[in-house]
Amino acid sequence: MSGHGEPTPGRISALLREPMTWVALAALILIVAATAGLAVELYASTSVPMTMNSR
Predict the structure, then answer these.
(1) How far apart are CA 5 and CA 3, in angstroms?
(2) Residues 7, 3, 20: CA angle, nearest 5 degrees
(3) Average of pLDDT values for 16-29?
(4) Claim: this prediction has a pTM higher than 0.85
(5) Which residue has the higher pLDDT, 45 or 40?
(6) Within 13 Å of residue 6, how many CA atoms lie on the same side as its CB?
(7) How far is residue 26's CA from residue 15's CA, in Å, rounded to a whole number?
(8) In this model, does residue 47 exceed pLDDT 70?
(9) CA-to-CA distance for 34 and 19, rounded, in angstroms?
(10) What phi and psi values does residue 17 have, to the nearest 5 degrees?
(11) What kind and span of H or E run contains 45?
């Protein structure tokens, strides 16, 4: 009885030989990096304490 749980090491190495796997991984890394950069930028712009208008 073979389950569909964990992939076998041969299946993983075959998957790593596929070019689309690397394209998908590169796209995922770019999306994560862009999201992290945007999050840092938003945090930096909103973490400055509000100051009262001196006028």
Answers:
(1) 6
(2) 30
(3) 92
(4) no
(5) 40
(6) 3
(7) 15
(8) no
(9) 23
(10) -85, -10
(11) helix 19-46
